[in-house]
Amino acid sequence: MEINRNITNNNFKIIGDWNINARLLKNKFSQLTDFDLKFDEGKEIDLLDRMGNRLRKNREEVMDIIKEVNLS
């Protein structure tokens, strides 16, 4: 997975098998729902916002969480 932190230009991209990462995230953060983890190509910022709202984190923190799960 590649994460570009330049959010202002909406360049954040998720590369790799999101289904695996979503399952890992849901196991780690039980409060996340399937809706929170729904990923549509080109709508990465929506995903970050939904996860951030549920976890009470900002976009950068959510990107770090996604990156951490991907590396484990």
Question: Could you give the topology of this structure?
Answer:
Layout: H1 18-28, H2 44-55, H3 59-71
Average pLDDT taken over every residue: 86
**Order of SSEs:** HHH
| Total DSSP E strands | 0
Helix content: 40-55%
* Percent of sequence in beta strands: under 5%
Number of domains: 1
Sheet of most strands: none
What is the tally of helical segments?
Answer: 3
Q: Per the principal axes of the C-alpha atoms, what is the gross shape?
A: globular
Radius of gyration, Cα only, in angstroms? Answer: 11 Å
Task: Indicate the structural class.
Answer: mainly alpha
What separation lies between the terminal Cα atoms? 12 Å
Low-confidence stretches: 5-9
Protein name: General stress protein CsbD
Any key phrases for this structure?
50% helix, 72 residues, mainly alpha, General stress protein CsbD
Mind explaining what this structure looks like?
- It is built from 3 helices and no strands.
- With 72 residues, it is mainly α.
- It has one domain (7-71).
- The longest helix has 13 residues, at 59-71.
- 12% of the residues are buried.
- The model is unreliable at 5-9 (pLDDT under 50).
- This is General stress protein CsbD.
Brief digest:
This is General stress protein CsbD. The chain is an all-alpha fold and 72 residues long. The chain has 3 helices and no strands.
